[in-house]
Amino acid sequence: MKKLRTIVMLVVATLLSTTNPSLATPSQMQDTSRRLYDRVMEEFKHRDYEAALAGFRFFIEVHGHSALAANAQYWIGECQYRMGRYKDALTSFYNVVSYYPLSQKLAASTLKIGQTYTRLGDQEKARMMYERVVDQYPDSSEAELARKAIDATIAKSDPAPHTPE
Predict the structure, then answer these.
(1) Which part of the chain has CATH 1.25.40.10?
(2) Is-above-0.85 flag for pTM?
(3) How far apart are CA 85 and CA 63, in angstroms?
């Protein structure tokens, strides 16, 4: 019930604020998209991932060309990831990389692709994505996390030290 209420609120708020989008100024559209985005982020912060997922999808439908569209696509993937829908999350994170090549979420999306492959048990693809993060975004916080993931992968694959008896 809470999810349905949230979705209805998002739709109504958007419709009320953009009754006639052709008459809205660019700053009004930006204000509307920011308000909707912030409202959906509140759902995410409260760990209502189903409602946030629906909200971010709706955001992209209504404000697909806004500056926040890439972020919304990233958070769709994050919602799916947190709900254990790893294959869907993988698609969503790849969408950020493919459709928003100038996004500030590229490093985070690439890292999440690696983490998702790890969850799916594909260590080879995971490592490849972690290495891509380190190579393309070497000074980022995502690169630090990717290095740790690579180190953890190496530690798991190294055989246990053999002690002579």
Answers:
(1) 1-16+27-101
(2) no
(3) 25
